[in-house]
């Protein structure tokens, strides 16, 4: 028999559902619910970087009704000045009496919020439905723990693993629904990377062209020999672009990106670029969009892992398979052999 959720669990699940909204990269996904006398008086989530945080959004809705309320928030309230003031200050000014957080904030710059609230007389709790809240915020939390961006490999492929015909024709292998989800991934990650060859063959714009996107993703182009002209669409004014020329050390690049504020990276390059991340054991997740087509020949989505035997092969642990019209979306995380 299923366990009946407690009122605290029910309210935290509402906060977790709210946290899944918006495109806050490189910031975390956060949701907040304010409750007074058993009634929800305010809700909010972090819509995009630069917008009010979830707590501030919920407090704005609640107004004076926030005084004496309980706050349910999916991540420990921030305790520093960034693009916006500390959420701890806002909660204290509003007179919130109790704060229940699902996850501690692993970002050393922003952590310490619950301690500060407690020092000022606010009742605090941590850990309610932590696993569920972390699952809604896995990219950001992974980046904070690894001190590098979480890396997702994305490819649209035929059932025989091809990303284009031998001529280079690739538009479009998958249908509109799959392409929309690819755009959503760009917005969720906040940064997208390709190699020179992809730019030359496809001339992609690499923007997230779906409703609700305020901050376009950072576009990163690997061009070790500096062959691109700068006139390609990826260098237009639609989004910021980082053009990487010269020898590329992927580990060093990821550290540099993290230090610049990038917490999640979507790698959309061809098979050689993707293989570089897998060989370096830097690919954390894979999103494959599978079209019911057989191309027979043409480039593969993954080239040149240089495996000596099957025991060395990385494996994919499938998290979800979703139908998108005639196509399938396969979501998995990568496991490397020790």
Automatic annotation (TrEMBL):
InterPro entries: APOBEC/CMP_deaminase_Zn-bd, CMP_dCMP_dom, Cytidine_deaminase-like, DHFR-like_dom_sf, Eubact_RibD, RibDG_C, Riboflavin_Biosynth_HTPR. NADP(+) binds at residues 156, 172, 198, 202, 270-276. Binds 1 zinc ion. It comes from the Bacteria. Zn(2+) binds at residues 53, 78, 87. Pathway: Cofactor biosynthesis; riboflavin biosynthesis; 5-amino-6-(D-ribitylamino)uracil from GTP: step 2/4; Cofactor biosynthesis; riboflavin biosynthesis; 5-amino-6-(D-ribitylamino)uracil from GTP: step 3/4. Coiled coil: none annotated. Residues 6-125 form the CMP/dCMP-type deaminase domain. Its cofactor is Zn(2+). Substrate binds at residues 170, 186, 206, 209, 268. Keywords: Hydrolase, Metal-binding, Multifunctional enzyme, NADP, Oxidoreductase, Riboflavin biosynthesis, Zinc. One of its GO terms (biological process) is riboflavin biosynthetic process. It catalyses: 5-amino-6-(5-phospho-D-ribitylamino)uracil + NADP(+) = 5-amino-6-(5-phospho-D-ribosylamino)uracil + NADPH + H(+); 2,5-diamino-6-hydroxy-4-(5-phosphoribosylamino)-pyrimidine + H2O + H(+) = 5-amino-6-(5-phospho-D-ribosylamino)uracil + NH4(+). One of its GO terms (molecular function) is 5-amino-6-(5-phosphoribosylamino)uracil reductase activity. The active site is at residue 55. Its EC number is 3.5.4.26, 1.1.1.193. Converts 2,5-diamino-6-(ribosylamino)-4(3h)-pyrimidinone 5'-phosphate into 5-amino-6-(ribosylamino)-2,4(1h,3h)-pyrimidinedione 5'-phosphate. In the N-terminal section; belongs to the cytidine and deoxycytidylate deaminase family. In the C-terminal section; belongs to the HTP reductase family. This is Riboflavin biosynthesis protein RibD.
